[in-house]
Design goal:
- By secondary structure, this protein is mainly α.
- Helix content is 75%, strand content 0%.
- It contains 13 helices and no strands.
- α5 runs antiparallel to α6, α5 packs parallel to α7 and α11 runs parallel beside α13.
- The longest helix is centred in the N-terminal third of the chain and has 17 residues.
- It is elongated and about 65 Å long.
- The model has no long low-confidence stretch (mean pLDDT 90).
Length: 233
Amino acid sequence: MAEDQLSSIERLHEGIRLFRMKRWDLALNEFLQINPADFDGKDSIELAYYMGLCYTKLARYDDALVHLEQVVTAGEDTMRIYQCRMTLAYIYVITKRVKMAEFELKRLQVSGFESAILYNTLAYAAWTQNQYKKAVEYYQKALDIDEDNTTAMNGLGYVLVDTDIDVLRGIGLCRKAVDKKPQSAACLDSLGWAYYKNRELLEARTWLRRAMEIAPREKEIREHFRIANGGLK
């Protein structure tokens, strides 16, 4: 069958196949050629779900919100609604709409959908609002659920050292995070910054240099590296 003669359901299936191959742009192109009038409620929600995820992967966040909200409002699959709420919260956090992110996350929390990911996102939202004690509390809850969660280890360690709440414990957590993910620029940066806060400059520069080598364009890593080297450019 010629490409322009594909039915809407065939395009949906082809788009899903491309999505699973991580070909977000090609998948979205298939979805955009579907006539929504061809679908009933179930297939319409399926289309909205995959379009929302594609737009998220392509950093087209305003477009993603429209489709993800459709799944949350009209969908019946509990796990997909959970995933979409988490994705909405992620979008709201990175687009600096933190209050809206907290709304989505707390809806999940009240509904009993507790997870390390949920508490990590709540912790980050609290951190961006300078609510440091809440950030520590949420990261700790994430670790209570999953003691090996690297994101929670690294996040909690960074908050503890950056705010001087407990620098030594923070160093220990950052060290564990690096042991688990030795090629993570974020973890290396946190450990380097932790040593800087503890006035161990040689260690700080060593770890921050490694973070710079992996992610030389990351603004925060560059700034930490500059400060640890006495403010040199």
